[in-house]
Design goal:
227 residues, alpha/beta, Rossmann fold, 9 helices, 12% strand
Length: 227
């Protein structure tokens, strides 16, 4: 049975990494096989590309080069890690995917929408998330969170105006694909955000049949033990 592909999106500092870890812990406690990934990254090659993209020293990177680097990292991750994991029935939780490219490079950088869409199609190797969780947070608040504990990376250095443009991009995505993109209020406590996320993901698990499969495996094990 194919696994479930869940992506987490939002402006910098919205709490994606925290919520990926919390959801993974909850699902693993119930017996689901979970794989946590991040973009860009997730493979040796993709992590090297990540370093290039986030290094403040590369401040002269042009938007087109930025777009292509993200897509190259993504293609390697999809082919090498995500597709095999889904084929093995795992729940794949990914911190960012192609929606971030639409929000950051199209809405944020102003690149042509058709060009970004075609680049996303190539970089994703045709793979789309089953569920996308958009952690909705005020861009200024998110940026303050993101830069509060470390020096800002290349994208964080773009400032609040850039993050506001990115947020507008995510808003448009959620309106365009409400069946896939779930808006989650990320201004609450981590526990409140976690609860809202779990409600969405648990429904997706039921729809795709993974919950039933886990239950069936457990029932089979109990029956075998009683034989």
């Amino acid at each position: 049975m194919r696994g479930l592909f869940v992506t987490f999106e939002g402006v910098d500092g919205c709490g994606k990494s925290t919520q990926v870890a919390r959801l993974a812990q909850s699902l693993e406690a119930q017996g689901y096989p979970v794989l946590c990934l991040r973009e860009p990254g997730g493979t040796p090659l993709s992590e090297k590309i990540r370093s290039l993209l986030l290094d403040p020293a590369n401040g002269d990177m042009v938007p087109e080069a930025e777009l292509l680097l993200y897509e190259a990292s993504r293609a390697q991750l999809v082919r090498q890690v995500i597709r095999p994991a889904l084929a093995a029935g795992q729940v794949v939780l990914c911190d960012r995917f192609y929606d971030s490219t639409t929000a950051y490079q199209q809405a944020g950088r102003g690149l042509d929408a058709r060009m970004v869409s075609e680049a996303n199609r190539l970089g994703s190797c045709g793979l789309a998330p089953d569920v996308t969780l958009w952690l909705k947070l005020d861009p200024a608040q998110g940026l303050a969170r993101a830069t509060g504990a470390h020096s800002p990376d290349r994208l964080e250095q773009e400032g609040v105006a850039f993050q506001e443009a990115v947020a507008t991009g995510f808003e448009a995505l959620a309106a365009k694909e409400p069946q896939r993109v779930a808006a989650i209020d990320a201004s609450g406590t981590p526990e409140q955000v976690e609860t809202a996320i779990y409600q969405v993901v648990s429904q997706a698990l039921e729809v795709c049949g993974l919950r039933a499969a886990v239950a069936a495996d457990s029932a089979h094990s109990r029956g075998a033990a009683g034989d």
